[in-house]
């Protein structure tokens, strides 16, 4: 979200929202970049750009080459990874 008031005012609203329900806690990050699911959102001089975000704890898309999976499984992993990277990148340079 974008916010035109002070950062402290935003923090107060978010901290207040965390008191509304004991089982729901909001996490927030204030800055120029934000990882969200598999996308990295970045504000570059007022322009929103997107690129692929690799979670540090996530396992890569790898199937052992000696596994008994059919050949098309290996091809699908590569194709899907490339397709996702192209979709998530807002510019060719970020891809």
TrEMBL record:
Matching InterPro entries: HTH_animal
Domain Helix-turn-helix: 61-95
Pfam families named in the record: HTH_animal
Protein name: Helix-turn-helix domain-containing protein
